Amino acid sequence: MPKLPSPSSPPLLYLILTLMPFLVIPQSPTDQTRTTLLTIKQQWGNPSQLSSWNTSSPPCSWPEITCTSDTVTGLNLTNYNITGSIPPSICDLRNLTMLDLSYNCFLGYFPTILYNCSNLQYLDLSQNYFVGPIPSNVDRLSSSLRYIDVGANNFSGDIPRAIGRLPELRFLKLYMNQFNGSFPAEIGNLSNLEYLSMPYNPLFTPAKIPPEFGKLKKLTFLWITKANLIGEIPGNFSGLSSLEWLDLSFNDLEGPIPKTLFQLKNLSVAYLYSNRLTGGLPTPIQSLNLTLIDLANNNLSGSIPEDFGKLQQYNNEGSFVASEISLEDSMGKLRVWAA
Length: 339
Known about the structure:
It is found in: Cell envelope; Membrane. This is Leucine-rich repeat-containing N-terminal plant-type domain-containing protein. Keywords: Glycoprotein, Leucine-rich repeat, Membrane, Repeat, Signal, Transmembrane, Transmembrane helix. Its main location: other. By secondary structure, this protein is mainly beta. It has one domain: Ribonuclease Inhibitor (Leucine-rich repeat, LRR (right-handed beta-alpha superhelix)). About 5% of the residues lie in helices and about 25% in strands. It is built from two helices and 23 strands. Strands 1-2-4-6-8-10-11-13-15-17-19-23-22-21 form a 14-stranded mixed β-sheet, with helices on one face. Strands 12-14-16-18-20 form a five-stranded parallel β-sheet, with no helix packed on it.
């Protein structure tokens, strides 16, 4: 009697055909990144400016993308007229260190979803339509963050103390918002800060410049025009040993100019005009790199120190360029240029 086929195990082909729907072929890193970026593009309504983002080319060839070792590390979408919000999937780009979304039409509150971009070093959200306060836990942004620009939005309320807990921050730009609270002395804890910009925030609560700002030894640029500053310029600004550019114009600062201000060796520009500063001009002048001083529209008195006539600069050819001094009137409205 012939033997029947054994029913014990199905043929190998049958197994493969049966299990095929359950087999998942993993995407390559490039494919995963492309999928993420195309999803972001779709969430923004497929803007025509991103026409180069497609399935037929690698993301590292797209003009808005910066790559390091074939990994996406930068996304530059400045002035692309993008509307809506920032999708959470943007932080699926795990190696993203640079994100520039400036000059667009992003709406809503500060995008806390960016807390998940753990390697971010450069963040530019300027020139958009963000509203509301900067959150009190803004220090949950990447601890590697070196640059943040939230200027020219509609942020309001206080600048939170937590901004002073971003240890690597070099550039902090908070200009032209609707802040109607205060700015914190904790900014003075940013020991690596080189550039601080808070001008054109006239709704700030009237406040003195925190003396803690005098601890910013690496600061080269300080701009706080039209920000409702009151009181005196702190005497410990002598600690700003790297300062090159100072603009405190259009405020209500009063009292004397600190004697140590014009002893800062690297200072080249000082705008103190349109305040209520009083007294004489301090000497000696040891800021030998000064090229422009504007003290107009204050209540200064006395004579112009001879030291101002000793300022000198040299052009690229090494030729002498003399300072030019003009006294606008007897009320102490003084502008000094090095021409």
